[in-house]
Specification:
The protein contains 6 helices and 4 strands. It is an alpha/beta fold and about 140 residues long. A 4-stranded mixed sheet has the order 3-2-1-4, with helices on both faces. The protein starts with a helix and ends with a strand.
């Protein structure tokens, strides 16, 4: 079994997907989680490639947020599309990453993802509130590389 499929339990995955669903129920923004074993290129660059591969750059308001994790490399990246990046301060992603890193360092990956998703969702809700007619543009399922 690969590290990406055994990394989280089915229950953990369901809680992460539910955190995404709840966060997105209050915003027009889109949140995705992508897990892969490692990357041969810089993790931020790889996250941007995954962002595009998952069509996160195709959302109407450019308000997608990707949480990318390379398990074996012990590295993760949070990247937002230009719509959200233009509205949140530079310290926002860093503070979100710090919250997640605290959980990750103690081995509580599920809670790290859930807390990061909730924090990203709060900012998305603030700047891109859900309005009548909003549809979920992207899957909430965890993707793997």
């Amino acid at each position: 079994m690969s590290k990406t499929t055994s990394f989280l339990s089915k229950e953990d995955e369901q809680e992460i997907v539910e955190a995404i669903r709840l966060a997105e129920s209050k915003t027009s923004g889109e949140i995705r989680v992508h897990i892969e074993n490692s990357s041969e290129i810089a993790h931020f660059d790889r996250a941007k490639i995954v962002f595009s591969e998952l069509n996160m750059d195709q959302t109407e308001l450019k308000n997608g947020v990707l949480i990318y994790l390379a398990v074996a490399d012990k590295q993760f990246v949070i990247c937002g599309d230009k719509g959200i990046n233009e509205l949140v301060g530079n310290d926002f992603w860093e503070s979100t990453k710090n919250i997640m890193a605290t959980h990750f360092k103690s081995g509580n990956f599920k809670q790290g993802f859930v807390d990061g998703i909730q924090k990203a969702g709060e900012q998305l809700q603030k700047h891109f509130p859900w309005i009548e007619g909003d549809t979920d543009e992207l899957s909430n399922e965890i993707s793997r590389g």
